[in-house]
Write a structure and sequence with these properties.
By secondary structure, the protein is mainly alpha-helical. It has 20 helices and no strands. The longest helix has 36 residues, at 487-522. The relative contact order is 0.12.
């Protein structure tokens, strides 16, 4: 892409990016908010606290929606424009929040989380592509750093947001608030003025369709009432009749449900007939033919099989799920079919030469995979170390230890964005991941009293800073090396690579760590030798078990150091080329 491909962003562009960044932060926070609400959600789904494995779909359902549909959403953003995808993703996120909040069992709860994942995931590639649309290559670093910073900030805000809501209300209030926030942000994005450089000219329509927006909000509100059936209204003598099923005991035949259908139908009619519709339904059939739904389905199936393979694994027994042969076999078949589809489709999901036109294009995916593999070790095992040693059994104390890492992440993301103005992205990302690698090496040597020394805080903060430094440069290298017409799908793929890296990383590293733990446990002398005269346990035995746990975490941190080191080397080797790619470089 030439330097002048994008004019400097004006005020409207900055406002639009700001709203999109807030939406990304909110969706990222929702990824972590379930950590605080999970016990209550399990109870609402009919699960006991000892059935954590059965509750895994509440988390993996969100992840599956987030990752498996991302390429399709990214491609739609290229074809339809960034603003429609941002608005549609927020509306879908709001609907998923309604379904989750009103769920009366595990299945609807997982379905709601899946819809939330699809909506939340769609915000990221559209926002990254929006930055590329509105800022020239040499000025993208800072806005990309801001987007990366707010995304990482979600990991800090999420648990705090969940705890704050749970202090005054039940878990359902979290998702009702999510619905309200999603709709407000969607309306605000619709209300933003025309940007100076809106890539797809078709997305820059004037004043939004107010009637369509009102119908959409009313339809979502009616859906919320149908699902939630608030007790004060349901138990009212007159208003309660609105929730009485017309046919049998099906809540979907109640008057409120019928109003929902009517509002949804009115919205569709409005979108088909309005001069300036919100989502331009009349043009969606053409988009569906262009976006290659079959390719998206095959890639989504492959990603879904990989996600379930690792997300449903029991690290105590194996790196992968017991159904791994079947799942990975399905992933291989789906991937082969997707490659064939890419070669034969008239308009493939990933435009040809998008990732092969320049080395940093596919190199960014490799770097992102290993960044995710290393990052997950810090997010999961730093709190584990804290609970095992200094903050035994204290969830809050362990979380505060991790905050030292998390706070430095967005700081590093913005610093990395500024650095790309003067230094090649490859060197900035490489330096950041090398710093993270060194910090993991230090952490792998931690003893049980490590957190009592200030050096542990320094190591955590520098590790977070290192990861943050890599965020903007990797995205900048990717966007600079891919065509304008493929920025959405390219941004989606780099997010997918990172998320898959996190899944594979947590499964592999945890499995290795548990093997080291079990080896250490076998070397502990019998209880009768450590604790003569004790029939149960003693301090010496407890200390030995803690030491075995530290061995486990040391192994995980060592593996994370290797992943971070690979990411550092790959950044320097694969992100170095700054070959320009023009609009026509995508090919068909």
């Amino acid at each position: 892409m030439s330097e002048g491909a994008a004019a400097p962003a004006g005020r409207a562009a900055r406002v639009l990016l700001g709203l999109a960044a807030v939406a990304v932060a909110f969706a990222a926070a929702d990824t972590y908010v379930v950590v605080m609400a999970l016990p209550d959600m399990m109870a609402a789904g009919g699960l006991g606290l000892d059935e954590l494995q059965r509750a895994a779909p509440i988390v993996s359902g969100f992840l599956l929606g987030y990752v498996a549909v991302l390429p399709l959403v990214g491609r739609i953003a290229d074809l339809r424009g960034r603003r429609p995808v941002l608005v549609g993703s927020l509306v879908l996120f709001a609907i998923g929040s309604v379904v989750t909040a009103a769920a009366d069992g595990l299945v609807p709860m997982v379905a709601g989380r899946f819809l939330q994942g699809v909506g939340g995931g769609g915000l990221v590639p559209a926002t990254l592509a929006l930055v590329a649309d509105l800022w020239p290559p040499r000025r993208r670093g800072v806005p990309l750093g801001i987007v990366g910073a707010v995304q990482e900030l979600g990991s800090v805000i999420g648990p705090l947001y969940g705890a704050a809501v749970l202090a005054v209300a039940d878990w359902r209030a979290i998702f009702w608030l999510n619905c309200a926030a999603g709709l407000v942000l969607a309306g605000a994005i619709l209300a933003t003025g025309r940007t100076r450089r809106a890539v797809p000219r078709r997305e820059a329509h004037g004043f939004p369709d107010v009637l369509g927006a009102v119908l959409a909000v009313l339809a979502v509100a009616a859906l919320a009432l149908t699902l939630a059936q608030p007790a004060p209204l349901r138990n009212d003598v007159e208003l309660g009749t609105l929730f009485l099923p017309v046919v049998g005991e099906l809540r979907w035949t109640s008057p409120v449900a019928l109003v929902t259908y009517a509002l949804a139908a009115a919205f569709v009619v409005r979108e088909l007939t309005a001069r300036r519709p919100l989502v331009a339904l009349r043009t969606w059939p053409a988009t569906a033919r262009t976006v290659d739904l079959w390719g998206a389905l095959l890639l989504g199936a492959a990603l879904g099989c990989v996600i379930v393979t690792f997300a449903s694994a029991d690290p105590e027994n194996s790196v992968v799920s017991p159904a791994a042969p079947l799942l990975l076999g399905g992933a291989v078949v789906a991937t082969a079919a997707f490659v064939w589809r890419q070669r034969t489709a008239t308009t493939p999901l990933v435009p040809r030469r998008t990732l092969s036109a320049a080395r940093p294009a596919w190199g960014s995916l490799v770097v992102s995979f290993f960044v995710g593999s290393a990052l997950i070790a810090a997010l999961v095992d730093v709190p584990f170390f804290a609970r095992l040693t200094e903050h035994r059994g204290s969830q809050l104390g362990a979380a505060l230890v991790l905050v030292q890492f998390l706070v430095a992440l967005p700081v590093g993301a913005i610093a990395g964005g500024y650095a790309t103005r003067r230094v090649r992205p490859a060197w900035v990302a490489g330096a950041g991941m090398a710093l993270a690698c060194g910090c993991f090496v230090v952490m792998s040597a931690w003893e049980r009293d490590a957190l009592t020394h200030p050096t542990s805080s320094v190591a955590l903060a520098l590790a977070g800073l290192g990861f943050g430094l890599a965020v903007a440069p990797v995205n900048a290298a990717l966007l600079d090396a891919t065509p304008d017409a493929a920025h959405g799908i390219a941004s989606a793929l780099v997010v997918v690579a990172r998320m898959v890296g996190m899944l594979v990383g947590i499964s592999v590293l945890t499995s290795w760590g548990l093997r080291a733990y079990h080896d250490a446990v076998t070397r502990i002398p019998p209880l009768s030798e450590l604790c003569p005269g004790s029939a149960t346990t003693c301090d010496a035995y407890n200390d030995a078990m803690i030491d075995a746990g530290i061995v486990q975490l040391s192994t995980v941190f060592t593996g994370a150091a290797v992943c971070a080191g690979i990411a550092a080397v790959a950044s320097v080797l694969l992100l170095t080329s700054r070959t320009a790619v023009t609009e026509g470089g995508a090919g068909d």
